[in-house]
Design goal:
Diaminopimelate Epimerase, Chain A, domain 1, 2 domains, globular, single chain, alpha+beta, 18 strands, 18-stranded mixed sheet, about 40% strand
Length: about 260
């Protein structure tokens, strides 16, 4: 089985969010996929197999299967086009636990059609806020995570979570965000999910399905250029259209190999 290591939401190697992409030659069970996800030890491993009218796809962190993953979807579409598995010039349809996700190849990036994850205002959950050691201006929740607005980009960059305390909160996936202060970005963010085996995710597509909704409600705009300011960093283009969010980014293959077990 062909296996690829791809850096997603970046145009250069060793940045963005690394994902493993496994092209299956036959159906495999979830236990085996989870074992491979743990072996790869990346924030997500995507498993892709041919399906009617496209491809089937599932995503696994080192610890759990997830319902939606942006960077591994971007990485998978990149591999399918780059390796000639999917026809150049045609959209790719992925059949997933979050429905059909369509990827379109633009001149400068790959664009993905994802479900929006609308946010609702909530009281700040004290266990999470204390673990992050933050004072949020606003607290919202979506299917993806909690989102906390901070006062500045500098505040987002300065967050130092207590991951042991955050890990103890069962539904404590958390994102911090602020309006962009440099680089021409509309907003910045960071994302933490130690419960899924990922202390800090470098660049999180699924979180931007919530972030785009949050900032659209804040600003009245629908089109954003965002930066996830982890240590690796990555650029995400996000456009809100009704109940969908179109996420765009680049990807770079850094390793090709063969999975033999």
């Amino acid at each position: 089985m062909r296996l690829f290591h791809v850096d997603a939401f970046t145009g250069k190697p060793f940045a963005g969010n690394p994902a493993a992409v496994c092209i299956l030659d036959e159906p495999r069970d979830a236990v085996w996929m989870q074992d491979v996800g743990a072996e790869m030890n990346l924030s997500e491993t995507a498993f892709v197999e041919p399906a009617e009218d496209g491809f089937g796809m599932r995503w696994f962190t080192p610890a759990v299967e997830v319902d939606l993953c942006g960077h591994a979807t971007l990485a998978s579409a990149h591999v399918l086009w780059e390796e000639g598995i999917a026809p150049d010039g045609l959209d790719i349809r992925f059949h997933t636990r979050s429905g059909v996700l369509t990827c379109h190849r633009r001149s400068d990036r790959i664009e993905m059609d994802f479900p929006a994850r609308p946010v609702v205002e909530v009281d700040p959950p004290h266990a999470i806020v204390d673990a992050l050691a933050i004072e949020p201006l606003a607290s919202v929740h979506s299917q993806a995570c909690y989102v906390f607005e901070l006062a500045s980009e500098a505040d987002v960059r300065a967050v130092q979570p207590d991951f042991n305390r955050l890990r103890a909160v069962p539904d404590g996936w958390a994102c911090v965000t602020a309006a962009g202060g440099s680089g021409g970005f509309d907003f910045v963010s960071r994302f933490f999910a130690p419960q899924a085996g990922i202390d800090e995710d470098p660049v999180t597509g699924a979180a931007h399905c919530a972030l785009a909704d949050f900032w659209s409600k804040r600003s009245g705009r629908t089109d954003f250029r965002a930066y996830q300011c982890s240590s690796r960093g990555g650029v995400v283009h996000a456009r809100v259209e009704g109940d969908r969010v179109h996420l765009g980014g680049q990807a770079v293959t850094v390793l090709r190999g063969e999975l033999v077990r």
